[in-house]
């Protein structure tokens, strides 16, 4: 039409596309202001007649965290003691369980907020569920994004502000207060001696399998003040401790003021988050949980 084409014909397909366009314009996506330093995505579509550009920011995981936090706050207000949550975001489920690190600062802030409120429950668990098995919640989320009326007997709560904010440089230098709850002795664990020998003198044990393990694991190790430290994928340094010390740390987290009888994966994640590391952490946590009468 713009080029005054002589053979232009308004077909049924064109009419259907026009109606679809009107429907989409009547149900726009919810706009939100970008967060400082948050990546923006540019989508470009072009053909011989037009060029279309859209700048968007994807916050699906942030929305999943917001929903999780809101549900946990409601459970807390209802004085529930044990909570089992289901979500179709595998990233959120893996981060909260401690299987994956939260590399993004905003996701890390959300995870800390979830850990904080989850500490009020005697038992807490988040499981990933396939979106196809989560149809009811998925249908409600579409209603919300399209701003359609909610069905009867459905509660609606509008969140005007995000529950967390990106940490500032001042926040990053403040030590985690929960880490002060865990007491630890500064001794050189026996299992770290071969790593220190390799990293300082290039010495390796005669056993080839053990030598390969030390060589591979040493790539994520560093020495500070004569002590071996493990570097996580997020760049955080964790002091290497003995299995006995690690088991005591797990007990304090599991039973103490900073714990809530969490599962084994969550226990290990908290121990690592507090800045400690040892090779048998997962096995020790599973053993502790299996012997706990309250779990």
From TrEMBL:
It holds the Pfam family RVT_3. It comes from the Eukaryota. One of its GO terms (molecular function) is RNA-DNA hybrid ribonuclease activity. Residues 60-142 form the RNase H type-1 domain. This is RNase H type-1 domain-containing protein. It comes from Triticum aestivum.
């Amino acid at each position: 039409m713009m080029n005054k084409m002589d053979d232009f014909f308004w077909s049924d397909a064109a009419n259907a596309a026009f109606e679809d366009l009107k429907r989409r314009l009547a149900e726009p996506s919810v706009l939100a202001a970008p967060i400082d330093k948050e990546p923006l995505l540019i989508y470009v579509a072009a053909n011989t007649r037009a060029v279309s550009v859209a700048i968007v920011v994807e916050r699906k995981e942030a929305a999943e965290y917001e929903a999780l936090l809101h549900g946990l706050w409601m459970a807390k207000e209802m004085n529930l003691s044990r909570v089992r949550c289901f979500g179709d975001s595998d990233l959120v489920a893996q981060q909260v369980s401690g299987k994956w690190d939260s590399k993004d600062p905003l996701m890390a802030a959300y995870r800390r907020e979830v850990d904080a409120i989850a500490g009020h429950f005697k038992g807490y668990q988040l499981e990933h569920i396939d979106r196809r098995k989560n149809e009811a919640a998925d249908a409600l989320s579409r209603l919300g994004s399209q701003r359609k009326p909610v069905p009867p007997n459905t509660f609606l709560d509008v969140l005007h502000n995000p529950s967390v904010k990106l940490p500032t440089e001042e926040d990053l230098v403040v030590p985690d207060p929960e880490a002060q709850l865990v007491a630890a002795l500064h001794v050189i664990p026996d299992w770290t001696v071969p790593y220190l020998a390799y990293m300082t003198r290039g010495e390796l044990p005669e056993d080839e399998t053990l030598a390969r393990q030390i060589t591979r694991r040493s790539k994520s190790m560093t020495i500070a003040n004569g002590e071996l430290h493990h570097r996580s994928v997020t760049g955080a340094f964790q002091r290497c401790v003995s299995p006995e010390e690690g088991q005591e740390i797990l007990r304090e987290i599991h039973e103490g003021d900073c714990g809530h009888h969490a599962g084994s994966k969550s226990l290990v994640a908290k121990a690592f988050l507090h800045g400690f590391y040892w090779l048998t952490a997962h096995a020790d946590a599973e053993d502790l949980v299996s012997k706990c009468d309250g779990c």
